[in-house]
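Quick one, tokens below. Sequence please?
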């Protein structure tokens, strides 16, 4: 009996150890450095300013939404390499002042929701189809498209002395869409053509990343078709498969490297969304070391509600950062707004905050620094 008690206690301690993820600090910020990267002197000056503001870690763009790459890549097509020296310089100068570096990989996007980039134009079967054409998002069901993204990310983590990896756009695009692999599967399995279903309402409105609800002004939509829940579930499973593959590849390339992800948040489990982003499973599988749900809300009441909902859904053992959108496509915060959002994030029990972006936050210094340092 005593032996059994010891065994159970040891198991519980092991579980606690597994669940307790390493935090990179209390405050992080997304950075761009469009001009500063051209001058080592200016870049170092900017790094010192970030550190002096109370920021612990930065999130520079390694792979952008257009699919361009900011490192010396042998995987990416040459025309998609934007700045081969960027990541090397950012890591060097950030570490010089004591900042941690979590480069951001915008995983599934290769051009965005308007056009496909050169990679997808060369490989059209990799592209998602919506709004009348193939657009700049990969078909996550396509193993070759996934393999390309995995090769990029493993190259990044292997090549540079980074402190962790931050994922973005680890989702399907929020559109009524179909993919070639999905279309083939549903034709074979269910004798239903997703292309015909999607054509019912190619312009149907969905809820947005920033929480804006869609207007229900379409009488007949693809999402009302009986097959749609199965199509949603298929995509969710493919995305979870991809996430598992990505984590395994990263940890093989650099064992123990912390992995985090920006996610839209709790509202995507209940609203009109097509992102299929099942981040609760990612947490339960142990694939993430910390998570930063969106806090892109521009009234105090809604910001607080969303932050509470996210905190309730993220286990206490998982470090959670509120992502404060100082200036985004969804809205803009004032300096006082930003201070209140920092305070509310602390109030609801968030482990820290991440600002989007440094270039937007910088104008509020030094006034906001006190709130950041007091977190």
């Amino acid at each position: 009996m005593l032996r059994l008690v010891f065994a159970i206690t040891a198991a519980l301690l092991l579980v606690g150890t597994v669940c307790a993820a390493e935090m990179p600090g209390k405050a992080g910020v997304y950075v761009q450095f469009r001009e500063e990267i051209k001058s080592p002197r200016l870049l170092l000056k900017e790094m010192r300013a970030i550190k002096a503001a109370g920021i612990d870690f930065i999130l520079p763009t390694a792979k952008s939404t257009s699919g361009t790459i900011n490192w010396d890549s042998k995987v990416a097509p040459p025309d998609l390499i934007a700045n081969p020296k960027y990541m090397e310089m950012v890591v060097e100068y950030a570490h010089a002042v004591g900042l941690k570096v979590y480069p951001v990989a915008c995983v599934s996007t290769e051009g965005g929701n308007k056009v496909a980039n050169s990679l997808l134009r060369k490989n059209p079967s990799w592209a998602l189809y919506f709004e009348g054409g193939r657009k700049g998002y990969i078909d996550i069901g396509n193993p070759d498209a996934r393999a390309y993204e995995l090769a990029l990310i493993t190259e990044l983590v292997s090549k540079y002395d980074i402190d962790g990896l931050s994922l973005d756009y680890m989702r399907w695009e929020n559109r009524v869409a179909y993919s070639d692999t999905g279309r083939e599967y549903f034709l074979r399995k269910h004798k239903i053509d997703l292309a015909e279903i999607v054509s019912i309402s190619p312009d149907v409105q969905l809820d947005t990343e920033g929480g804006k609800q869609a207007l229900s002004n379409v009488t007949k939509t693809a999402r009302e078709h009986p097959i749609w829940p199965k199509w949603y579930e298929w995509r969710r499973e493919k995305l979870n498969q991809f996430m598992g593959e990505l984590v395994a590849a990263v940890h093989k390339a650099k064992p123990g490297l912390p992995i985090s992800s920006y996610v839209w948040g709790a509202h995507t489990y209940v609203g009109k969304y097509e992102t299929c982003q099942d981040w609760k499973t990612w947490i339960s599988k142990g694939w993430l070391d910390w998570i930063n749900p969106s806090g892109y809300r521009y009234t105090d009441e809604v910001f607080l509600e969303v932050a509470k909902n996210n905190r309730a859904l993220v286990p206490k053992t998982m470090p959670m950062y509120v992502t404060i959108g100082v200036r985004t496509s969804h809205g803009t915060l004032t300096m006082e707004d930003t201070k209140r959002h920092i305070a509310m994030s602390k109030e609801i029990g968030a482990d820290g905050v991440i600002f989007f972006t440094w270039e937007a936050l910088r104008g509020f210094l030094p006034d906001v620094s006190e709130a950041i340092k007091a977190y």
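Residues 1-20, 215-219 have pLDDT under 50 and may be disordered. DSSP finds 13 helices and 14 strands in the chain.
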